[in-house]
Design brief:
Structural class: alpha/beta
Helix content: 40-55%
CATH superfamily: HUPs
Shape: globular
Number of strands: 7
CATH class: Alpha Beta
Strand content: 25-35%
CATH topology: Rossmann fold
Strand order of the largest sheet: 5-2-1-6-7
CATH architecture: 3-Layer(aba) Sandwich
Largest sheet: 5 strands, parallel
Distance between the termini: 22 Å
Length: 147
């Protein structure tokens, strides 16, 4: 059925649980996994005519984002390797996580996106939405949401 699964992860507890379930799902279906992490871009806040710049340089920020991505993706890959599931890991800079997830799935040739739901409810879901909801809304690739 599904042969190549994209599993976005942000390193959160819920995302880590979803990684475990995605690995089990992939093992049972004989699929391979591509783990994905969307790295944030260097933050610059504009205020009036000037910019409020983080004291961290863009280069240092990129190094920190790369290190975080490597740590999160290595943990996910280790989970897959323990289960004997073939996997790759990818990260890209993109502040629009849902778009980056969909783009990564298309680029990798995935036929399923398996991701966690962060489960916002009530007014916070109306105001903040969720990346999962945005992926569900915009993706032409099937999405399995682990809750």
């Amino acid at each position: 059925m599904f042969k190549h699964i994209l599993v976005p992860t942000d390193g959160s507890e819920l995302s880590t649980v979803a990684v475990r379930h995605a690995v089990n799902f992939a093992r049972e279906t004989g699929a391979k996994i591509t783990f994905f992490y969307a790295k944030p871009d260097y933050p610059i806040s504009f205020y009036g005519e000037g910019a409020l710049i983080d004291p961290t340089t863009p280069e240092k920020f990129a190094e920190m984002a790369d290190a975080q991505a490597q740590t999160i993706l290595a943990a996910a890959a280790a989970e897959a390797q323990r289960a004997g599931v073939p996997c790759d890991s990818v990260s890209h800079i993109n502040d629009i996580a849902y778009a980056a997830i969909i783009e990564a799935a298309i680029t990798a040739g995935c036929d399923l996106i398996f991701m966690a739901s962060h489960g916002r409810r009530g007014i916070s879901s109306l105001l903040l939405g969720s990346e999962t909801q945005k992926v569900l809304t915009h993706s032409k690739i099937p999405v399995l949401v682990w809750r």
